Model the fold of this input.
Amino acid sequence: MSESMSLKRARLEDADASSPTDGPPRSPPTVFQGLVQNGEFWFEDGTIVLTAGYVAFKIYKGPLVEHSPVFRDMLSLPQPDAHQVESCPVVPLSDAPMDVSCLLGVLMPNKRAIRPFGLAHPPYPVIAAWIRLGHKYQIHSLVEQSLQYLRTLYPDNVKHLNKQPRYPALCAIGVVNLARLTGAHYLLPVALAECCTLGEEIVSGFVLPDGRREQLSRVDLGACFRAKDKIIAKRVRAAERMFRGLPEECKRGGDCESDMEFFLMFLMKGTIGSLCVPRVDISWSASAKKLYRLCSKCWDEVRGREEDEQVQLFRELPSLFGIQVPGWDAAEMTQSGEPSQPAVAG
Done:
C-alpha cells in the first residue's frame, strides 16, 4: 500500500475538486479556457471566479471579503475586463486546488446538504488546508478553531492525553509543520513524540492526496533523533519504579511484589506490551492487573505510581526535544475547560 493511501480515504479522492462533504456522484467537470470547472463550488449566480492551478471556482465575493482582510484588499483592486469568465472577474491564486476547495467548504453555501455544525472530526488534509490558507488569508477565527481541535489530539495538558484517537502517526509530521507555521508551539511536544514512533518514513514524510509531500525540517528531524532514545530510557526507568518495592502491607503476603517482578521481566523482554518504544503514554498497570491477581493495596500503589510517572514524562517532553513551550506544565494548565471543536467560520 502506498504511503498516501490512508490519507486518500479521508473523503479526499479528487485532488483537484476535493470537498469535505458526502453526496451523490458529480457530473463530469466542464472544461473551458484551459480550466476545469469545480462542480462543488460553481454557482450560476456567483460573482467572482477564483482559479487555482487548472481548477476554477465560481463563488460569491461577499463571504471572502467578510472573513479575510487579505481577500478584501485583493478584490478591491480593479480587475481587467479581459480576464472574465461568464461576466465574472477572474482572480488567480497560487494555492493548491484541494486546499482552496477545503477553504470554500467552510465559507460558501453547500449544494448537497445543510451543514450547520461543519465537520465534527475533519480529516488531516482538510484541517491542514484550513490552517494553511486561513493563516495566509488572515481568517483568524478559522485558524484558531482548527488549532484548538488539533490541541485535543496533541494536548499540552496530561489530563487530556489520549482522550480521543489521533490521526495516523505520519500525520504528526504535518502537525509539526502547522505548529511551526502558526507559532502554536503547544502542539509540538506530543506531535514530535508521535513522529519518534515512525520508522524510516520519518525522513521521507508522506504524500497528500494531491501529490504534495509533507516532511519534517532538518531541525525537527534532528530533535526527534536526539529525543527518541531519551524517551525510551525514561520509560524503562519509569517501569522499574512502578513495579519494584511494593508496600509491605501487601494483602497477599508479598506475592504481589513477586508477581510484579515477573511482569517487569516480561515487559523488559518485550513479551508483554511495548516498553522500549518512544511513546509518550505510560499505561502498563491495566495489563499487570489483568495478568496477575494484585491485591487492592498494591493495585492502588501501582496506579498511583503510574500517574506520577506519566506526569513526569509529560512535563519533561519540551526539554527532551530542546524546545521552549511557554506555560507548559503537565499537572495544571492555564487552558480552561476542554479545547473547542472546529466550526464553520463566521
